[in-house]
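no rush on this but wanted to send it before i forget. theres a chain ive been looking at and ive put its sequence and its fold in token form underneath. i want to understand how the tokens follow from the sequence so walk me through it. thanks a lot i owe you, the record is right below:
>
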Amino acid sequence: MVPHLETPPSEALAGDDVPTWPAVYSLFIASSFLLFSAVRGWQLRETSVKLKPASSSPVKLVTTIAFLAVQLSSFVKNSSAVFDIHVLSNAISSLAALVFCILSFIEHQRSPTPSTLLVLYILACLLGSGVELLILPPSFTVGSISLPITNICVELAVLVFECQKKDSAFLAPYQQLTLEERAGILERTFFLWINPILKRGYRLNLTDADLPRAGKELSSEGLRRKILRTWDQRAKPERTTTLPYVLLKCFKGPVAAAILPRLFLIVFRYSQPVLINISVRYIDNARKESGSTEEGRWLIVGALVVYVGLAVSKATYQHQLNRLEVMIRGALVSLVYQRSLHVKNADYEDGSAVTLMSTDVDNVQDVGQMFHETWAQVLEVIIGTSLLATQIGWMWPIPLIMIVFCTRVSRYVASNLNRKQRDWSVATQKRISMTVSMLASAKSIKMLGISKVIQTKVQSLRVHEMAMSKRLRWMMVVYNASANALGLFAPPFTIVVFAIVSRSRGHQRLDASTAFTTIALMTFISHPANMLMTIYPRAVACMANFERIQRYLLESSQEDNRADIKIITPEVGGSEFEEDTSSNALVGSKISVQYPSNTTPILQDINFQVKAGSFWIFSGRVGSGKTTLAGAILGEVPLSFGSLTLSTKRIGFCPQTPWLPSSSVRDIICEEGDHDPEWYKDVIHACGLEQDLDTFPHGDHTQIGSRGIKLSGGQRQRVALARAVYARCDILVLDEPFSALDGATENHVVQNLLGPTGMLRQNDITVILMTSNVQHYALADRIVILGDSRIQLEGAPDDVLHSSSQILKTILHDKEKANRQLDEPKTQQIPKSSSTDTAALNLTRRTGDLALYGYYLKSVGVLNFIGLLCFTSSYSFFFHFSQYWVKWWTESESDQTWFYVGGYLIFAFMAWTTTNGLMWSQIIKIAPHSGTVIHYSLLKSIIGAPLSFYSKSEIGTLLNRFSQDIQFVDKKLPPSLSGFVVQAFKITMQIILLLISQRRILVTLPFCVITVYFVQKIYLRTSRQLRFLELESRSAVYSSFLETVDGITTIRAFGWQNKFSSRNIIELDISQSPFYLLMCLQRWLNIVLDLLVTGIAVSVISVSVVFRGTMTGGQLGVALNMILLVNTTLLSLVALYTNLEISLGAIARLKETIQETPQESGPEEKGTIQGWPSAGAVNVQGLEVSYIPGKLALCDINLKIEAGQRLILCGRTGSGKSTFVLSLLRLLDPSSGSITVDGINISDIPRSTVRQKCFISVPQDPFLLADATLRFNVDPNEHYSDEEIVVALKKAQLWSQFSRTEQNGHQTSSTDPQPTAPNVSEILESTLSALPQLSTGQQQLLSLARAVLRAQPPALTIPYTDQISAPTQIKPILVLDEATSSLDEETEAMIYDIIQQEFTDKGHTVIAISHRLGALKKGWEKGRDVLVRIVDGRVEWVGDLGDVIDGEVEGEEGVGGKIREIEGAGGEDEGQSADE
């Protein structure tokens, strides 16, 4: 409370020297406190107690009582005087002190934080007491101020104990509150609550576990609920502003919370030029001996209030914006993720949603700042212009005229910005999409030998992206030239005009107070005007991002037109079905499906009625519609006509291409719920996973990597099948679930699941099996054969079996356990360690790495960086020296006016020219150059990594390098580097001019330097780590999102949308924590530096008051104007330096990835040999391959494959067949032994040559790029003509599929003898996604077409022909890795016919992995074709197919007959030579 100083007795009656303002001030704050205390007491009346019993602080109670005693003492001493304002003030203050004591006790028990009201009141009391003591009238003695001093001491003690934390006394429910939620008003204002994190980050490496989660208001779950509710309530029809309006409506409270501190910020900002004007006039008057000491003290108080108020209001405003930014980010990410769970035709390889979640959300999350800055800057321009009019009169419109001119340029930029921003975003999206496809299909890319092609493709997209960015960047250069013209020319023009007019009116010298006040005001006019012009194009670009997000949110949703069988009428099923539908699980009536891109229906008039607990098989050749029907049953494919009713929409699903998230085997299988040990054990046994789990490093806790990359194809299928069975759904849909299994494993799985005593039969689960295989027909209750869009045959197994040809699988029983080992190091720790935890041990996260500057500057280019330095230094000199030029002008003679006018304008023009050069250097030269160079290095490193690298790396983490980190290089690092250099030169010039103007401030320089050094050092150690954790946690969010989009069909089938949404919320919460803390840490840094500048400003004015008369008004004006600039520059310098250091974290990760990623190429590679391979003879001697040292996956393999021979590899899933193929292609290096082709050891040949020239591969998983053209998918090297490509597609019977598409209104028929050239070219140049959808089998056919094309000499010269003559044309070896696993019997036979004609008959060696041996009988030539059985990584048996099949497939049981079991055949063929 403000003490009322006791006057001497001789002056007690006069009272003239006793100021009344302390009494008025005390009365005002005490009355206000009493009013708010009543409100606060009402709020606390029903609030529960939050502290433990007996947790009251005795010291706190004593200090509050002492505070009451001091107030009562003051009241008693003055109560004998005549009743006046002083007595009334003392009485109300005493009452307020009593209420303070009561409220303090209640708040202590019922509030988790120190009382805001009590702390603000005691601060107000301290402020009044301190000011009155500072401005003491000379009539008061030292003894008369003992009571006020005592009062201040007591108030300080009360403040200290009132701000005391209550952490240790909280009851259990309130111990989970975050640091910020438990902090008081002072801790939140000055960000003291973040000090524990700063301390820990300075000493130790931070991990996610060390960071407190964001508070309740920022929780991702709460944000998700709010944004979804608001989005659902949006106005319709939607407009382009719908999404921004939804955000405003959703967060109207947080938006409004920033208004008040922004208004205070305006008030304190515009108090600075007023303070400058008063200070300069005071100094000028002091030189004339007319300035009073009391006025000088008030100047010091005013400076303290202005600069402290500026620091606090700025920190509060920025913090409110930061909270709003976190809310917007969390809401939009949740909205996009939630939309991905319901969007139609979601595709993993479509990078649009990933780009939305990263680039677009990042670009719009600061829309709250743009909103507030828009109205605030308009208000600042109005206020600044009004104040300017008081200084220069009618000339005030001069800056407004320039603003209007520059705004026209800004409007032109904005009109062209939207389209260019959209083009850049689209180019980024295409590159990200291609990158995702590249990372997800790394194995197939390497097998095909097209790594360099894909690298070139992705890099070309990057170059195109940079070209699109340059179009936008040039617009920004033009805009910056306009905006800088306003800031640099407005002050000189205004001062020059004012000086000329003043001179014409007889004023011989430019007035210092008017000049420097005008310059300060011009800063406060031009800066907000510049900001407005900056916001306009940013807002336009932001709207483009909003439109992209909104377009995705409004895309058509999944149309689930399935009905509940329990509530339909009997007529729905159709008249041909029985009326009693209560026992049915699934009923389809007249189902028709036709895709928009197809001219004929995929399915037409399909009818079926599936009883609950029955087993139905839907069969047919490739492209007959099996997968489409499965999609319709799951609700993924909308029906064009007809109806589909089910007993439940929760359906177990095992797709043909298994979707497996990155997790452990057990977690994937037990996705449905809690772990049931007995059921889990039964499922594992039934799915044949026991042997595999025994060989895994950590059993069922083994991490399988992204998309199950560490598992074989058969293992992936069985894990997915086990997950579907474990879920115990009433209906189970299986789409070719056994295609990658060997015969023995398949027989085991089928018998244990689908046999008469199988798990699914015993649990009355309805099973729908989509398959091209007839082997298990006998187990089904009903079989449906699809063909030509219709049901061709339906009936019981016996009826159908006698009407269909048969291709069987050979059942090879393996008695031994498979010895397939995962590519994962054996460790004792079972839980998976995340990349974040591993990287947390990196010391450079805290201390930084100077080598990163050199690495980044190398990518920038030496000449580019030198140009940046030249432009920056020149700009800093010309801009700042003009201030001192004005100081000389105010002290010059009148006849030199024109000299100073010309000099001032020249300085402005040179500053404008050099700053334009600076912008050109930064965004046209540095940003694109560094981004292209680093992206190329990263791409080259990743594409050249061995297969083991991909098995150990998460796709989300790698994608984060190509998206988030590269975005830092594109958008964050160049302005941070440029800005830091600019601010470094600026601060140097400002300090020089400040010291010249006020030399006594030199004594504070060491203190300021030391303070800034330690502040930034403490800040950087923590901020680096927070930025690292934030970026790494974003990787987890991206990985989670990508996995969700990849498996959306499976997720929706099981009904797991809410479960995965909850997981995304958890990942997002983890990501939001370092993101929010980093912004809070920046606010901490800003307020510390603001308070430092406050000390400098108060020191300058104090020195000027104390030593008044020894300096001129011009010197003080320069000093205070420099302080204005120093304040901004110092904050910018440290912020940009820290941002540069933080952003260099992206460079650190990129550098580590580029330099530490292992590469396939080794020193043993010597070059290529022309004409090789000329025959295709393969000799394998003593081959041993291991994934883990000491654990052999292949052991002592000896095979001799003659030229032109066909070698078929068979064996149990995981026995080592794929490992052998990977060794041939040099994706795996042998531990010992050798592989030679035509006498050349392939270890001496570059890997790219082996894969491109020596082998032609057809991987098990077809590699197709949906966003690439049909031509690129068939001929990625672009070596073949249109005619050659069409011929290859016709051989694979796919051309008719593509040529059915309507082209320019004309339907091209497959019966056309020769399609016209324009149609052919148009089809080949169409993206695969725009052509008719391909089934999985058709995708394998397209892969075969690619192989057929490569086998023939192209019309164009390609690398592997080596320009050799036709007689020595090379004969590459064909390698098939389960290439026919997804094909029906007819298509499979056709495939082998094509292979026979295009490869075998032409002398090519063929090496194939196959479990389906029956189809090989046709065309089998004894002596040429060899069957090899691999068991446990060893060649167990080599022989002829006839030894296995002859005499067995035509038995009495017809197609239902069994194939003879082979046991122990390996001992009969000791030589293991394929030519036997």
Observations:
- DSSP finds 46 helices and 22 strands in the chain.
- The two ends are 107 Å apart (CA to CA).
- The domain at 650-770 is CATH 3.40.50.300 (Rossmann fold).
